[in-house]
Amino acid sequence: MEEKRAHNADTGGQCSVLGGFLPFGLGLVLSLLVGWWLSPKLLFSEQSQPVAFNHKIHKEEAGMTCSDCHYFREDGSYSGIPTTKECADCHEFPVGSSAKEREYVNKYVKKGQEPDWKVYQMQPDNVFFSHAAHSLENCGKCHTDWTEKELCSTSGCHPDIGDSEAPPKYSENRITGYSASTMKMWACEYCHAMPDHRAYNANNNACFTCHK
Amino acid sequence: MGIDRRSIVKFLIGGAVGSMFTPTPWILTDDISIWTQNWPWVPKNIKGVDAYVPTVSKLCPSATAMLVRTVSGRPVRTMGNPEHPLSGGKISPLAATEVQLLYSPSRIKRPLRKASDGGWKEISWTDALALLDEKLGFVKGSATRLAVISGDQTGTVNEVLSGFVASMGSKQFFLMPSEAQTLARAWELMGGAGMPGFETAGSDYVLALGADILESWGASTRTRRAYCEARPHGEVPAATYAYVGPSCTNTAVGADIWVAAKPGSQAAVALGLANLLIKAGATSSAPDFAAFKALAARFEPATVAQLAGVSEANLAMLAEGLQKAKAPVVIPGSEFGQGGSVAAAAAGMALNLLLGAYNQKVGLRAVPEFAPVVEKAMARKDVMANDLAAYMQGLAEDNKARPEILITYEANPVYALPGDVAGTVAKIPFKVAIAQFMDETATMADLVLPSPLGIERYDDVATPAGCGVAIYCLNTPVIDAVNPAANIHGGDVILGLAAKQNANLGFNSFKDVLAAKAKAVGANVADLTAGKAFVSEAVTGAQPSLAAEAIAKSLEAKAPEGAYALAAVNKLGFGTATTAVPPQNLKLVREFELAGTLMYVHLNKATAAKAGVAQGQKVTLKAGDGKAIPALVNISEMVMDGVVMAPCNLGHTAFDEFAKGKGANVARLFTAQVEPGTGLSFWTQTGVAIEKA
């Protein structure tokens, strides 16, 4: 201790303050870097979709709307991603001359196989999610100014990729196996636990409303 | 400035503080909690198009009509078909498991040949059929060297099977024992036309004489539907249900009145009731009414009390109920759906005649048979006259010529027939099992041919036993066969073999047989294919007799030996001989039905005291000829005095981990005897001894 005091006295105390704060600051900065920059890169693996689907070209050149492919069936269930059979209505043979189009037709349409689409918002198996209950038909009763696009995208459930030329990368959590975009319960509760909503459905935040 | 311990501590503290301001620890905690829920057995949702495909259960004896829910073509569950007369939206506990049974570990996935070391060798269909064809060549033209047993009680496949047997020069085609056979034989003795059926819908008084009509007797799902409709919740019931039997079965539980009666005493009770009804003025234009009246007069209430254990007051109460009812129906049957007395069935049907409940909307009805389509098929009457239990007994005693080839079609005689027939079957040189599951009979076979489940194949269901109207339904495959090498219907197997043996049955495929049958029935094929049933409410025939002579002779049957009477109970949830208990249904087995590998038998307090046994005590039930099964005692007042109640369909020695070795097979104790006067074996009267183990 005596030796240390002597040393501090020699440096006049200024270096003592820095020397005292530097390791702490270094640890702080490093952990912030790891926490905000490195850890997300390690935690999630980035994957590409099996088919380079171009939403924009379908919308602008084929004149299609969202609900041409993503529609409610007669029984109220939601179709989600169209099947290869549905895509084959137009893509039985390659449309255009791109190599990717030919690859899609050869790999999936001709073999009748479904691409292993990675669904950005796939919910865990213990959650029951009904698109019908969350459709504009219901939510639009009060939110009269919402469009379907706003309901699907702006409310935070789905990213707006309706105008994208290539599908965004899919981030999979290496621990859980779920997508980085999968909605967490707090996001669901943003609406479900909202007191204003209880006037319309007193039980809409009960456990079994969503969980099986 | 050097790196000392203090610097490191400061660095770590800085890191810890910094990490608190990042999402990492919170996300990791959340992710780990989610990861802990990712177990492989958590069911996965299937995305896709929902469809509900109508079909009728071929596994469940109740012939329940159901809708198979498929998602993108994959079956996920079965549910009752509200539009169908064999369901009305209800489903039986066995039919409810049919989708799961597609993937049962006991399913036979491909043809198998027994190897010399007793193991199984996979062989191709071509080799299997060539082998069978070769063997059949040696028995063609013999009346005794080929025997075929069918476990299908409702299908046109029986015409193919019996036609094949007849074409091969034999008449040894048998159905597994069931209520259909008992009723058919009784109806034949009464001179009735068509098939006897019992309509409960619209009745105001339903008396089940032994028959467990709400559980295992006949088309029980249909009967349950009628029961529900007559008794809407919270309203005054439109019908009184009474059950007469030794234990409080599910029918007794649902009934307004349970009258305890000794096992197999249905004839005595029926004759006692007939006596009271005749005294009260009931009559019949049957030619043998006088003889029947004289016979019934021998069954005074005191006599019935002695024979059946039914008190005089209870007998009078039942008679009064029937007498006052506007639309009564009496349904006789075995307590466990097989091995019933033909005389009891005839006596029960005679009660309906005395009550005027014959060929009316409600009651006993002579339901027309559908015309056969396989020309060489044996007549239904002849098939029903073939007594399988007696045949096996004859083989065991070397009184009958042993067949060279035994073919079983979706039947498990080794497990289900009374007594122990395994030794008898083992002596048959070449055994072929066309089966869906590796049951006891398939395990003993030399050649096993896989059979698709009902929802994987074309098939049909024609008027289940005891059904009050004629019904015909066509099944089309709901899905492709789960096991690609198990997609050939037994009917097609037999048609192919018949063609090779130059015993052509007139059809190239079983699908053609079904098309011809639908046409013969007079049904709209498009409607049938769409899952609708063909229903005919027509009745046939003139006045039947009361079978007085045959019933009188049946009274000469040997009384059961043993200090206690055995009452078996058949619960559909426990499966059948050919399915065993489905894995999904193990949760239906209750605390006092099975404990580990031992099942419970049920006695009331007085019987237990007489036998000197206590709750939970291990005992051995013994019947004649050294037959014995182990069990635990459950003391329950749901069984009458002097009776031991035991469940059916436990104690399998085959199948899988879910069924094998659980409990004991009560059929081992059954003691069959050929009934005097009717000529058909029955085993509802089995006496047992209770020994402490």
- CATH class group of the domain at 112-179 and 369-536 in chain B: Alpha Beta
User: How many strands, what sense, and barrel or not for the largest sheet of chain A?
Assistant: 2 strands, antiparallel
Question: Uncertain spans of chain A, ≥5 residues at pLDDT below 50?
Answer: 1-13
Structural class by secondary-structure content of chain B: alpha/beta
Order of helices and strands of chain A: HHEHHHHHHEHH
CATH topology of the domain at 112-179 and 369-536 in chain B: Rossmann fold
Distance between the termini of chain B: 87 Å
Structure explained in plain terms:
The complex is a heterodimer of chains A (212) and B (693). Chain A is mostly helical and 212 residues long. Among the domains of chain A are: 2-45; 119-210, no CATH class. Chain A is 43% helix and 4% strand. Chain A has a two-stranded antiparallel ribbon with strand order 1-2. The longest helix of chain A is centred in the N-terminal third of the chain and has 30 residues, at 14-43. Chain A is globular, with a radius of gyration of 26 Å. Among the domains of chain B are: 5-35, no CATH class; 50-101, N-terminal domain of TfIIb; 112-179 and 369-536, Rossmann fold, CATH 3.40.50; 558-692, Barwin-like endoglucanases (Beta Barrel). Chain B is 31% helix and 20% strand. In chain B, the strands form 7 sheets. Chain B has a 7-stranded mixed sheet. In chain B, α5 (157-167) packs parallel to α19 and α6 crosses α13. The mean pLDDT of chain B is 95. The chains are: A mainly alpha (212), B alpha/beta (693). The A-B interface holds A 15, 19-20, 22-32, 34-36, 39, 43, 73, 75, 77, 79-80, 83, 124-126, 173, 175-178, 184 and B 1, 6-8, 10-19, 21-24, 27-28, 30-32, 34-35, 37-38, 42-45, 47-50.
